[in-house]
Amino acid sequence: MLYEESPLVPRTKLRKVERKLIPVVEKLSTEELMETNTYLRFNRSIEAIFDNTEDLDLNMEQDDDADVPPEALIPKYQLQELCSEAAKLKTLCAMESVPSDRLVSLLNILEKNIRDGTRVSPIADPDDDEDESKLWLELTMERVMRAADASVTSLYIMTSPNMPKKIYLEDVIDRIVVFTKYQLQNTIYPSFDPVYRTDSKAKDIFIGNARKKRAHVKEVREKSILTLYNKLHELVGLLAELLNIQVLTDNAVLHASSMGVAPFFVENVNELQLSALKLVTT
């Protein structure tokens, strides 16, 4: 008796499909927002800063080389809290609830804190010994980090949704761009890529030495330099956001353009390159 072979029927694989529910965050009303800890802490920080700078003439023009008045400098702990709360308010889409006049006054004070650390590099002279280099790092890093926190805070405010035009202060934006570019060129690139370090003993510098220098590069372990690096690559990303919102001055665009290209010629700065990519493709 002959049996015909039945054709093989492939077994259907059942795939379990899970439906993921994405939580929808409801926007808080103005009354609810004003009762949140974030809003209250942010406003308390602003109030404390205004109290400390009440004798300061914010409209007085100063030369770039002039020293920033000490009363304009925000204490480290206060600025860090302000920066943290500004980030939260931006995430909550709630920065618009803060009166714009207060934000403008705050940005003018932050600009002075940025200026104080704009032309200062924590990288010591190559001829200095180790102790001198450490001392210089400690003395300068406080000013640089204050400027970095002030820059990040300013951009959290400016890149928040639905902000009025009056808060996009050209002087503040230009100052942030100049600060970021200077610190990248004079602090970050030399720290992460030996090709960018100044060697006072070398009389002749050949391009052929670049590969040799990079072959012996050591990982950056200085915590303050790493912290600054993280702040700066965040700043570059925030500047890319700002370019989608506000037209910058010609000077700022010029600096931002070179800032967006330069990281791709530097080794060991992958995160910065990703932020720079956003900047050049905006």
Automatic annotation (TrEMBL):
Q: Which GO terms describe its cellular component?
A: Scc2-Scc4 cohesin loading complex
Q: From which domain of life does this come?
A: Eukaryota
Q: State the protein's name.
A: Nipped-B-like protein
Q: Any idea which GO molecular function terms this record carries?
A: chromatin binding; cohesin loader activity
Show the InterPro entries listed in the entry.
Answer: Scc2/Nipped-B (IPR033031)
Q: Which PANTHER family does the annotation name? A: NIPPED-B-LIKE PROTEIN (PTHR21704:SF18), NIPPED-B-LIKE PROTEIN DELANGIN SCC2-RELATED (PTHR21704)
> What biological processes does GO assign it?
chromatin looping; establishment of mitotic sister chromatid cohesion; establishment of protein localization to chromatin; regulation of gene expression; replication-born double-strand break repair via sister chromatid exchange
